[in-house]
Each structure stands twice: as structure tokens, then as C-alpha cells.
Design goal:
The chain is an alpha/beta fold. The chain has two domains: 105 residues, no CATH class; 243 residues, Spore Coat Polysaccharide Biosynthesis Protein SpsA, Chain A (Alpha-Beta Complex), CATH 3.90.550.10. The chain is built from twelve helices and ten strands. Strands 3-2-1-4-8-6-9 form a seven-stranded mixed sheet, with helices on both faces. α3 links the parallel β2 and β3. α2 packs parallel to α3. The protein is globular and about 75 Å long.
Length: 365
């Protein structure tokens, strides 16, 4: 029975690998019969982010984009030099629009209030979001992201990567980021879009206003990216852009404790996802957690050759899909360690599973 259960779990894992994740691994950009450069409003929210803005905002302001565009920075009650820094930037970059907010919105935790103000101040229909600690990977970022729009598209999902740095923590952070993107990109490509990341996300202003902004999730500390997309995404209105020139880059956390707190806060929104998304995400997580214990138990109670054959089938399938997907997302240096990182993900699920039923703290970011 253990072996049959092991085979069942492996079959489910293979289903996810080849039905969902392979969509990212073998993703090809479809040529457009007609390309158009739409006016774009880039929105960045900042609170006490002067060092990050000094380092990253120039990468947003010097984008090579032929059509009309603007960059809106919402300075939300910063107590550092953010205001003066932005005024200096505006002397050089006339497309920079500054929104200074000097009060908190009662009952609206997180950055939903400043983000809402930034979107409402935007002049253009297409809104492109990133964070103050992010920088576009190229000066073609706006061009590549807006190119995802056609007559049906209302949401475009991008990849928010982290810089490659030495050390174990960097690899763990980047693998978790890669795997999260593998999931939300592949689900979107399969018609089940369920989230995006605020580090690199675009949608139409009219869609935001029609949904009454974040009003239905204002009580949740986070969710300005994943829960909002979970609400408004359909099988027809969401596109993904997997192009290295369209990525954004951020500095990863340098301490395990800081990263754990960040991820714990992010996962508290998962319980608000639609049932179909919770089912598929939960099914994959549970079978992933069961896979290695069942492999070990089956190895000792059943013919080891059959057990290793089943294990090898998943290992090879995972290797093929991960290798191709890591090439697409520029994370191929992680591939030699993918099997170790896959084992780590079993531990990862145990660490962060309690976040799904605990209440998040009301922090800004």
C-alpha cells in the first residue's frame, strides 16, 4: 500500500510538471500581427526609501520608450530624505510626478492606500507597478511589459528577480522566487491566473476602478498584488511576459530571520484565494511533502528497483522542466542544485504552513 500511495503521489507531481510547469519551460513569445506602444503610467510607492530610490529610480526614469509615459512616485509619510531626493530628481526628469501623502488611512493597513492614490493620479490607462527596492533589468522594461497588451488583455504579469549573490540564503531565496513564478506563470498560461508580484505587475486603470480598487481587501494587511489579481484575473484577460529585458531586480534579504518574516507575512494572504486555486496549490504542496517520506518507506518495504524507477521518473521529468524554465527566468546557475533545493522545499512548506491560518501583522510593506 505504501508503494501504491508513493506511485499515486508521484503521478500527481508528474501531472503538475507536465501539464502546468512545462508551459513556462517551453514558453514561446507569440509574434503579434500588430504592435502598438500604449501610453503608460509607472507607479512606485515609497516610505522611508531614500537609499533605494537613489539607487533604483534612475533605472525607471531613463527607460527608452518612444510613446507617452510618466513615472509617479507616491511618498507615503516618509520621515527620511525621500521628499528632497524626489525634488532633486524632478529637476532633471520632467516625466516624474510626485504625490506626497502626509497622513495614514485609518483601517487600511499596508501600502494599498498610497498605491490607490498613485493609480488615481495616473494619466494613462495602462498602469505598470514596481517597488522602490527594484530596478528594471534593462531600459526596455516598459516596452516589453506593455507589449503584452492586446484587445482582450487587462493584466500583464512580469518576473521580479533577485540579484545573484554568494551564499546559501541567496540560493534559497532565488529558488523560492523561481518556483513561485513557475507556479503563477504556468497557472496563468493554463487559464487559472491567481496572483502576480508587485515588483513587476501591470493592469488597466479602468479594471482597477471598476473593481472599486482594493476596497474588498482593505482589511487584509497585504494582498495589493496577489489578492487583487486573484479577484480580477480570468482565463482570457491575463498575459505573462517572460523576457529577460522585462525583469526587475531586487536585493535579497541578508538574514534568514528577515526573509522568514517577509515570507510569513506574504503567505497569510493565501487563505483568501479562490477555492480552485487553493485546491491546486494545496494538492501540489501536500504531494510534495509526502513524496520523500513515502520514497524512503517504500524503499525498505518494496522492491527497491521499482521504487527507484518511480523516483527516477520524477527526478528526470523535474530536471527537464526545471532546466528549461530556469533558462527562461535566468536562474540556470541554480540547476545543479535543483534536487537539493527540491528537498529543501519540503521543509519550507512545514515552516510556512502555519501562516495560512494565522493573522498577519499590519506592516506597511
Amino acid at each position: 500500500m505504501l508503494f501504491y500511495l508513493f506511485c499515486s503521489v508521484t503521478l500527481i507531481q508528474l501531472f503538475f510538471l507536465w501539464f502546468f510547469f512545462s508551459k513556462v519551460a517551453f514558453f514561446k513569445i507569440k509574434p503579434k500581427s500588430q504592435s502598438q506602444q500604449h501610453p503608460v503610467s509607472v507607479v512606485v510607492c515609497a516610505r522611508d526609501e531614500a537609499p533605494n530610490l537613489a539607487r533604483n529610480l534612475p533605472g525607471v526614469l531613463v527607460q527608452q520608450y518612444a510613446s507617452t509615459h510618466e513615472v509617479i512616485v507616491v511618498n507615503h509619510n516618509s520621515q527620511d530624505e525621500t521628499r528632497y531626493l524626489l525634488e532633486e530628481f524632478r529637476k532633471t526628469f520632467k516625466d516624474l510626478h510626485i504625490v506626497n501623502l502626509e497622513q495614514e488611512a485609518k483601517g487600511i493597513p499596508g501600502k494599498k492606500y498610497p498605491l490607490s492614490m498613485g493609480i488615481k493620479e495616473s494619466k494613462h490607462e495602462i498602469v505598470l507597478l514596481t517597488d522602490a527596492d527594484c530596478v528594471p533589468a534593462s531600459d526596455e522594461w516598459i516596452t516589453k511589459m506593455q507589449d503584452g497588451y492586446d484587445d482582450e488583455t487587462e493584466i500583464v504579469l512580469g518576473y521580479g528577480a533577485f540579484y545573484k549573490r554568494p551564499g546559501l540564503l541567496n540560493k534559497l531565496i532565488r529558488f523560492e522566487t523561481f518556483f513561485s513564478a513557475l507556479q503563477y506563470f504556468s497557472y496563468a498560461l493554463g487559464g487559472l491566473a491567481y496572483m502576480g508580484t508587485g515588483r513587476n505587475l501591470s493592469y488597466k486603470k479602468t479594471k482597477f476602478l471598476k473593481n472599486k480598487g482594493f476596497s474588498s481587501i482593505n482589511h487584509v494587511p497585504g494582498g495589493d498584488d496577489d489578492l487583487f489579481i486573484n479577484q480580477i484575473a480570468t482565463s482570457r484577460n491575463t498575459r505573462v511576459i517572460i523576457d529577460k529585458q522585462a525583469f526587475t531586480l531586487s536585493e535579497p534579504k541578508k538574514k534568514f530571520s528577515d526573509w522568514f518574516r517577509q515570507k510569513y507575512r506574504h503567505y497569510t494572504t493565501g487563505k483568501f484565494y479562490k477555492p480552485v486555486h487553493k485546491f491546486f496549490l494545496g494538492l501540489y504542496s501536500i504531494t510534495h511533502v509526502l513524496f520523500y517520506p513515502l520514497f524512503i518507506l517504500s524503499f525498505f518495504v518494496f522492491d527497491w528497483r521499482w521504487v527507484c524507477g518511480v523516483f527516477g521518473l520524477r527526478l528526470i521529468s523535474q530536471g527537464i522542466v526545471y532546466y528549461k524554465a530556469m533558462q527562461k527566468l535566468d536562474e540556470k546557475d541554480l540547476f545543479p542544485f535543483y534536487w537539493l533545493l527540491d528537498i529543501w522545499m519540503t521543509i519550507y512548506y512545514f515552516i510556512f504552513a502555519p501562516a495560512l491560518w494565522k493573522k498577519a501583522k499590519k506592516t506597511w510593506s
